[in-house]
Design the sequence.
């Protein structure tokens, strides 16, 4: 099946042409054309993403990226050889989502192809189905089927949730953040340390400098909600703790910033790994795979702490996306569309699609 996929839920405009066939637990995915434009530089000056500005940029970028993607794939723009068009319907910024949906609907009419709505979070989950030897370099993963049920820890700038993936198309949210998403907290703490948006990866780099310099820190930040007894997260208190610590310490030298970044990362990662452990313990042997996806799954500290935690669960498989699929992209939207139409062929009939900023699982 050939799928043209479009992603515009936040500040990345992405268009991909994929060819996917085979079983859902080990599909054969070929990326025929793939383009992405990040608006990070534009939003950097505001310290966050402005929805109406993002929408205008998506509208400007989409026709350009479409032409580039089709050209890369050697497809005819007047009448490309595709089966479906997939577009992110939510969750995300509604004006930004509408830019993609309106564009997809027009293409659907022009080429007489069905347009299939995709849940962005399902996209993050199924991003792990793509394994390319050159990128993952992991023969073990490539030859492995994805075994379900799985527990998915989804960590991004907009979301932080633990999802029970009972089967393809069957999801249950077990816990989520009650306030800030973990990526958002990383970005806000980074900003307090004078790092530009999105500061998550930059903060993480500072933290690793501190770890390289000294064995342990002489202060700690509280790991939020670690003992709350449920599977929810909260990161706004941790952000405030950074603010107070910076104010009270009356220091802003480089070494102090590195230590603060490390204390923040340690606390945030401990909360994520701790709740994931609790969820796995609650679910027992039922769970076959742990999936960790979303922008913050690029965080090496998180992956190494989860790896340590997984020593207590030796039977569990561990899947993370290829590096280029950790942050928002259209490849994962195309893969999630494949999962959706295989499970619900009625989606191939098409129909009206609306943007839903708070969309939960379809
Ligand atoms: O999934 P994503 O691209 O966008 C959303 O759907 O939100 O995630 C972006 C988020 C940003 O907050 C960014 O700072 C964070 O992921 N991020 C990281 C790292 N790489 C990206 N946070 C911590 N450590 C990283 N290495
Ligand atoms: Zn995302």
Sequence:
């Amino acid at each position: 099946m050939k799928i043209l996929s479009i992603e515009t839920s936040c500040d990345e405009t992405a268009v991909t042409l994929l060819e996917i066939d085979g079983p859902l637990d080990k599909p054969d995915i070929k990326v025929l054309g793939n383009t992405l434009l990040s608006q990070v530089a534009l939003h950097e000056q505001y310290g966050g993403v402005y929805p109406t500005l993002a929408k205008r940029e998506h509208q400007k970028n989409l026709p350009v990226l479409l032409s580039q993607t089709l050209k890369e794939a050697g497809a005819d723009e007047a009448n490309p050889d595709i089966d479906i068009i997939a577009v992110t319907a939510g969750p995300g910024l509604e004006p930004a989502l509408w830019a993609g949906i309106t564009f997809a609907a027009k293409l659907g009419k022009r080429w007489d192809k069905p347009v299939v709505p995709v849940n962005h979070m399902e996209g993050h989950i199924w991003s792990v189905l793509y394994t390319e030897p050159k990128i993952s370099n992991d023969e073990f993963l490539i030859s492995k089927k994805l075994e379900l049920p799985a527990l998915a820890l989804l960590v991004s700038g907009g979301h932080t949730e633990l999802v029970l993936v009972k089967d393809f198309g069957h999801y249950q949210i077990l816990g989520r953040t009650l306030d800030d998403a973990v990526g958002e907290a990383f970005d806000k703490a980074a900003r307090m340390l004078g790092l530009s948006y999105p500061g998550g990866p930059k903060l993480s780099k500072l933290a690793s400098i501190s770890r390289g310099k000294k064995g342990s820190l002489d202060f700690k930040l509280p790991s939020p909600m670690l003992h709350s007894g449920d599977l929810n997260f909260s990161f706004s208190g941790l952000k405030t703790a950074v603010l107070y610590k910076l104010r009270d310490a009356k220091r802003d030298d480089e070494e102090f910033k590195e230590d603060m970044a490390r204390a923040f990362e340690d606390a945030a990662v401990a909360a994520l790994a701790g709740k994931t452990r609790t969820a796995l313990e609650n679910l027992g042997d039922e769970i076959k795979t742990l999936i960790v996806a979303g922008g913050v799954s690029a965080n090496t500290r998180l992956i190494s702490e989860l790896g340590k935690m997984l020593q207590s669960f030796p039977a569990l498989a561990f899947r993370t996306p290829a590096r280029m699929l950790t942050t928002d992209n259209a490849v994962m939207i195309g893969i999630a569309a494949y999962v959706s139409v295989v499970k619900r062929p009625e989606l191939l009939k098409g129909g009206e699609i609306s943007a839903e900023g708070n969309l939960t699982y379809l």
The chain is about 40% helix and 20% strand. Residues 10, 156-158, 183-184, 186-187, 198, 200-201, 204, 294-296, 298-299, 327-328 surround KG4 (ligand 1) (CB under 6 Å). The CA atoms of residues 297 and 326 lie 6 Å apart.
